[in-house]
Every structure is written in structure tokens, then in C-alpha cells.
Amino acid sequence: MTVEHINQLYQQKRFDEAEQAAKQLLHHEPHNVDALYVFALVMQAQMQFAKALELILKLLELNPNHLFAHTVLTFCCAQLGLADLALPYLQRREQSNVAGEQSWLAGLYTNLAMYDKALSIQQAASLAHPDDPYAQYTMGTIQMAAGQTAVGMLNYRHLASRKMFRTFRQDLLNQGWNVEQYWEGESVVGKTILLFPVGGYGDYMQFCRYVKGLKALGAKRILGLVYNHRIHGLLRSCADLEIIDNHNGHEFDCWTDPFGLCAYLHPKFGYLAQPKYLTAPVSASAEELVQNIRIRAAGRRCIGLAWHSETHDAVGRNIPLANLLPLFGMPNVHWVIFQRGVALTEFQNTGLASLCTVVDEDVTFDEAAAIVSGLDGVASIDSFMTHLSGSIGQKVYFLAGRSLDWRHMNEETVSLWYPNTTIIRQPTLGDWRGVIQQLQVDLNLSI
Questions:
Q1: pLDDT per residue over 255-270, tens digit each?
Q2: Per CATH, which fold does 3-159 belong to?
Q3: Antiparallel, parallel or unpaired: β 333-337 and 377-380
């Protein structure tokens, strides 16, 4: 048994096997730092944050300078409401003058919703490294996360710059993308712009709203490159966006990505908040499922629910299942589960699935949109589900931690992007029970 094998199991999401293998290896090699780290990742992926924290603390006793361990440390402390426990470990790292490490450290304080501390560290990094686009971009994200929208967006533009691509996105340049054609806010009058899919599908759904802004500025055509056909129907409903699945054979004057649209058009047009700017495609299978959901609900409200994402940066947003249990005792709600992977398996093992409707985990984005449009609302963590549901005008209860992604501008209850979305934020760090209690109150009041 080797660390490499355990890591392979972890990457394949075979968490039970990885856990057993890690235990076996650590039984023989209890001070194996690499094994401790991978084991902590496995526990974190299964939302067993107390166990993951225990492993990381042991690791840091053996190797206080293990950089990646600090990321797991802050995510676990945030989930458990133990910010003070992480501080001595972070403070030891504050002497570095390397721009990348300073930005990384500032991000760790952001994980703990300690925005003032994060701003202080990142301000020093930005001043010390004024030519580093990553340092300036990180400054912008932290400023916006702290609610400093205007100045934050100006610094955020460093992400959407040719310099950033030259420095940090050589992978795209190696694929033949011409960095000199990357759009940095120049005039688009009479031009054809290609929207490249950097980021996740939620980012594309959220920021395609700015296609309207490009058109208002005089753009001739906007081509939306989307490789995944499972979302084409939804995105084709975006006015003036021509969806293509391959850029070969298409001529365009410049290209950008969803974050570039936000960086350069938000200062001109604001949030472009609209009750609805995408339309769910017609789906016979989705319509049939919604009919069956309504029959099972027997007059109760039908609310979609998503509490976990397997993306690498979602650990701090995921809600441990135990906190959700009170929801399934609500007599006036029929829950429609949009979940997959380890979280779905854990849910099914509780026996609660018989009380709900569980949507197939292989459902397409187009089908999911059609199903959501037939429900009475959606409660979701910060994931593609919040953007999909918000963009088609559905009522959304956004279940949020104290540490919020920059795009939410440190708002407590109001979404600046989606008029029909209500943010329900942790009262204190790690307090998911408070979020669920407030969701119950809001649902009962809206009946």
C-alpha cells in the first residue's frame, strides 16, 4: 500500500477504499506526512471535518511548513466554527515576502471570513509586487468579498488581462489561442466576439447576462463557445448569444471569457439584475417528472434541494447532511433532491429518499432547468444550481456560509444578481443549523 495508490483512489472518488487503505498504511507508518495529508483530504471530501482536522493537526506537528495542509486546516475550522484554532498556524506563515504565498495566505483568512486580516495581508502583497497580475487580481476578489465593490472590480480586471494569460494560462496559449486577441475592454463596435468557457457552467450562466451589454456597445455578433451539448438548449435562450461547439471555421475579432465580461462590463452596466434572462428548454421527460412530483407532493410545495458540490473549491460551502435533517420533517414541503456522488450516496443510506423525489444524478443541465422551472423554488448552496435557478427566474433560497465568494459582495440577505434570490447566511462561522432554521422560517412564511 502506497500514498500514490491512496491518492489515486481519492482522485477516483472511491473514498471508502481510500479511507481503509490510508488507515492500513498509517498503522504501519504513523508519521507518514503524505499519508496523513491524503487521508485528511478523503475525510474532508466525505464531510467528516472533525476527523480531517485531527489528521491535519497531527501532520502540522510533524511538519509545520506543509503548505497544502493549511488549506485543509482553514476549511475544517470554518466548517466547525473554530477559526481561533487555525490562527497560530496561519500567523507563522506571515513572514513570507513571496507574492504567491502572501496571496495564498490572504485567501486562507478569507476562508475564515476574516476579511480585514485578509485585506491587510493582500494589500502588502499588492504594494510589494505591483507588476504581479495574480496579486492584484486577488486583492480585487478579497475587496469585493469584503463589500468594497468598485475598487475591487478595478483590481479584478487583472484576471481578465493578456498579462495574466501570458503568465499563468500557458495551457490555453499552447492550444493556439492568440493572447493578443484577448479582449481588454476595447471598443467592440462592428466586431465579432467569441465567449470562451473559462470557469464552471455556473459562471457561464451568471455572466452571459453581459452579452446584452456587448450588444448595446455595438458588437456585431457574440459567439458562445460551449463544448457540452447538455447545456446548449438553456444557453441558446440568451438573447444575441450564438452557441457553437467548436470555434474552428468561425471568424472572430477578439475573444473573452465569462469573468472578462464581468470585469469590463460591470463598471458600465452594473449587475444587470433581471428576474429572468434565460429560459428552460422544453423537455417531455422533465414535464412528465414534474407531473409525477406534483402527484407525490399531494398539494405540498415542491422545493429543489442541493447541499453539496464535488468541485475542488466548494469544501467550505458544502453542508453536512446532519444539519439538513429537520427539513425532511416539514409537513408542508416535498423535497426534490438535485444531488450526486458521495452526498447522494450518503443521503440514500439514511432511508430518507423514500420521502422525497430524487432527480437522476446524470440529468443534463437543460433537463434540470426544465424540472426547476416546474417547481415552487430551490434551496441550494453556492453552485451551478443557484445560477441555473436564478437565471430562469425561479425563487431561490441561497444557503450561504459566513465566507462568501467575491461575487456576492458580502451581502447578508439580498442577491445583487438575482432579484428572486434570498441569501440565508450563517449567523456565525460554521453555524449551518442556523441557516436551516431560517430556511424553515422563510418557507413557512411564504406559504
A1: 999 999 999 999 999 9
A2: 1.25.40
A3: unpaired
